[in-house]
Specification:
By secondary structure, this protein is mainly α. 76% of the residues lie in helices and 1% in strands. Strand 1 and strand 2 form a beta hairpin. The mean pLDDT is 79.
Length: 275
């Protein structure tokens, strides 16, 4: 159902994901200027440049690829997962190389956790995996490289739990809304298709039907009908011309009695019940 919905609303979904990735690309490029200004060690600058350019190129490539995709493709979710992991690794490298304060890492963790859950429209289990990877990676990076104490380590874990529960709630609500929207749209589409089919059948039927309307001048004696040009026509010829009806000739019981009532074969047939 999720794949069907993505195919159905691919244009809107890819726009949101593409724009989110482009914003991250912009942030990656913008903060590199700050790295050059603040970091004095040339080796550190080169390492930051290498890390940022790797993340920058991969995310930009993904955004362009998604933008150019005319329809939903099967590796879409795996591509988003790779972007989530690459972004996480980029933040960890940035934290270690620049010795980022724990507060900044915490803000980044909250920000990108919510971005992963809400704006990068990935499958639920992929998103949970990437957020767990990001959260525990941030905790381990802080513990080993930023001298995080044991109490702060436990506090960080307890802090990440409600953040991820909030993200799960958001993503669950979004997925439910998407499924309800898809069901409503698909049902509406099926209903419209059924209505259109009935309308086409009615139009085809009406196109085949000719209806006689108005007063028809008919001879009181021979029962011929006068047409628009003033000519008198046999009633069956007139009806066949102005409708889809066709006549086959027979004889009613009264006329048969009048014409053949005195014939022996007729009397015998009546007696035997064959007439």
């Amino acid at each position: 159902m999720e794949d069907a919905f993505l195919r159905f609303t691919w244009k809107d979904n890819k726009t949101i994901t593409r724009n989110t990735l482009l914003v991250i690309v912009f942030l990656t490029a913008t903060f590199f200027i700050r790295d050059i200004i603040e970091v004095k060690n040339s080796e550190t600058v080169h390492m930051l440049l290498f890390a940022r350019m790797g993340v920058f190129c991969f995310i930009l490539f993904s955004a362009i690829y998604i933008h150019r995709a005319t329809s939903y493709f099967s590796r879409y979710h795996q591509l988003l997962l790779c972007n989530q992991i690459i972004i996480s690794l980029g933040i960890f490298i940035l934290t270690v190389v620049r010795k980022m304060p724990i507060a900044n890492l915490g803000v980044n963790t909250i920000l990108f956790t919510l971005i992963y859950f809400q704006f990068i429209n990935n499958r639920f289990h992929y998103t949970v995996f990437s957020c767990v990877f990001f959260g525990f990676g941030a905790i381990l990076t802080s513990f080993f490289f930023l001298d995080l104490s044991l109490s702060d380590f436990i506090a960080s874990i307890l802090f990440l739990v409600p953040v991820n529960f909030l993200g799960i709630t958001i993503l669950r609500s979004i997925n439910q809304s998407r499924r309800f929207e898809y069901l409503a749209l698909s049902n509406l589409k099926e209903t419209n298709e059924e209505k259109e089919k009935v309308i086409q059948e009615l139009r085809a039927t009406l196109a085949e039907v000719k209806i006689l309307r108005g007063f028809l001048p008919i001879c009181a004696s021979c029962k011929k009908i006068r047409d628009d040009k003033g000519y008198w026509n046999q009633i069956e010829a007139y009806i066949e011309k102005h409708s889809e009806a066709q006549f086959s000739h027979g004889i009613c019981q009264d006329c048969a009695e009048k014409l053949y009532g005195n014939e022996e074969w007729f009397k015998r047939g009546k007696k035997e019940g064959t007439l």
